[in-house]
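Let us practice reading a record.
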Amino acid sequence: MTADYDEKTRVTQVQQQAPADDSPSNDCLVVIYTAEPGLLGKRFVLDKSPTRVGRGADSQIVLEGDSVSRRHAHFERRAGAWYVVDDGSTNGTYVNEEQIAREQLLVNGDRIKIGPSILKFLSGADAEAKYHEEIYRMTIVDGLTQIHNKRALFEALEKELMRARRYERDLSLLMFDIDFFKRINDQYGHLAGDHVLRELARIVSERIRREEVFARYGGEEFVILLPETPLPGAAALAESLRARVANHSFVFQGERIPVTVSIGTALLGENDKVAADLIQRADEKLYEAKRGGRNRVCS
C-alpha cells in the first residue's frame, strides 16, 4: 500500500557562480528524500551567499510543489558558518524535524526539509568524502524516516533465512501499515503525512532490539524482522506496538492526528522457500487485520 504523492518536486541545477573569496566550495547540500526519485543523491555546492530556494525562477535551487513557497528560504554564510533562513514561507522550513522560527545555524549532517524534499548539509574539508558516504548510506537507509529501506531489509532477510535454516532457529516477521493513511494526507496535507511516518518510525524504533531489523517497506508500510523469535513472541510485540501507536499523540503544526496501525505476523515455515514467501504470508495476515476492522493484530 504505497502513498500517492499528488505533488512532484523538480530541482534545477544550481546556477554556477564564481565562489566568494570567503566561501569554501566544499560545503554542499545533498537531496536525500524527494517525491521525484531521479533527484535522489543530487548535490548542490554552496558557492554563493545567499543561495535561495523556492518555486520562483529567481531561486538558485527551484523546488516545485504546492507546499513550497515562491521564495521559501535561503542559505546564508556569516563568519564562516552557514545559516538557513525561512523567508516567510507558508508551510515552514524544518531542520531535523523541528520547524525553525526564522533562522538556524547549520552543523554538519543537519537535515533541512522544504516541502516534500529533504536536503542534508555537509561541511568541512572532507565534505567530498562525506558526500560519497551519504550516497552509500542512501542505498540502505530511507531518507524520510531514517530507518532501513526495502533493499536493506531483503539483504538482512536472506541472511537470517539461511541462518534459521542452518541452525533450526525461529524467524518471525511483522508487517504493518498505517490505517487510512490516504485520508491523513487528504485531510491534513502531505507534510503532515510525512510527519506521521517519521514519528511512527521513531516510536517503533525505541522498541526494536539490536539484532532485529526495522524497515520501511514502501509508502506507509513497514516490516520488522525478528530472528530467534517464536510466533507468540512476535504477536506479543505486535500488540505492544499497536497499542503504543494508538496511544501516542501525533501532533503537527498544533493539530492532533489520530493514528492506528494494522499488523500481520508470520513465522518461517517449511514451505517458505525464499524470503518473499514469508513476507507474503505476513502480508496476508495484515490484510486479514484490515478486513477485521483495522487497528488490530492477526497471526
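A brief commentary: The first helix runs from residue 127 to 137.
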